[in-house]
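New to this. Please check this record:
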Amino acid sequence: MLGVYLRHRNRRKYRAMTEIKRIGVIGAGQMGRGIAQASSSAGFLTTLSDVNEATAQAGKDQIANQLERLVGKGKLGQAQRGEILERIIPIHALEGHADSSIVIEAATENEDLKAKIFKGLDEVLPTQVILATNTPSISVTRLAGITTRADRVIGMHFMNPVPVMKLVEIIRGIGTSEETYRITSQLAQAMGKTVVTSADYPGFVVNRILMPMLNEAAFALMEGVASAEDIDAAMKLGTNQPMGPLTLADFIGLDTCLAIMEVLYEGMGDPKYRPCPLLRRMVDSGRLGRKVGRGFHNYE
C-alpha cells in the first residue's frame, strides 16, 4: 500500500511541475529582480518586463551582477550563472507574457498602478494564465474583481531579499480556486520556499504584525524616547532580531512602509494603525531609506 501511495504522490508532484512551464514577472525593481532570479534558478524560463525593454534589460544586468558576487563567494559555479541568465528574457509589452503559465506582478505598491496592470494582463493573456500579485498588503479580491478570471487570481508575497528569504505568503481572494491555490503553492515550493497561507485581510500575516512594530519605533523616535541608534540597539539585542526596526524600515523603503500602514489604517479603521507623522514627513522629504542613501539612518 505504501508503494501505491508513493507512486500516486510522485505522479501528483510530476503533474504540478509540468503544469508550470514558463513564468512571467512584471517589474524589474528589487522585488521583481529577486523573483526572476529565484524563478530562473529553479529552472523555469522567465520573462521579465518593465515600462520598457531597456529597463527590463537593466534589471537582468543587476541580476547578473548579483550572481557574479555569488560566484566570487564560491556559492555558485560560472556555468550555473550562465544558465540562470540564459533563462531570463527581458521584454516590454504585456503580450510577451502570453506563453507563461503564471505571471507575477511585482510593481510599486500602488493600487491604481497594480489595477491597471491586472486589467491589461486580463485583456491580452489567455484565460488559463494565473495572475499573481506580490503585494504585501493590497486586497487580492479587489484586484481580482478588475479581471474576468477571479478564480485565477492569487497573492504570492515574497520576502525581501527574495533569493535569500525562504517564506512566501499565499493569499486567497474570495474567488480564488482550489486549483489556482494548489499550482501556486507548489510553484513556490519548487522555488525552494516555505508557504504560509493567509486570508485576504489588510497586511496579511507578516506585515499586519511587522509594520505596526516599525511604525511604533518611528513614534518612539518622534517623541524623543531614544535616539534611532538606541532604539535599534535595544530591539536588536533585547529581542534577538537581526536588525533594529528603524534599520529594517530603511531597508524595506519608508515609502513602502507608509503605503502599507495606510492600507492597514484604511482597511481596519482602527487608530492603532495610524501612520506615524514622522514617517510621513520622512517620505515627503524624499528620505526613503537605504535605496536613496538616507532614511532614519544615513547611508551616504
Observations:
- The chain has two domains: 2-199, 208-289.
- Residues 208-289 form a domain with the N-(1-d-carboxylethyl)-l-norvaline Dehydrogenase; domain 2 fold (CATH 1.10.1040.10).
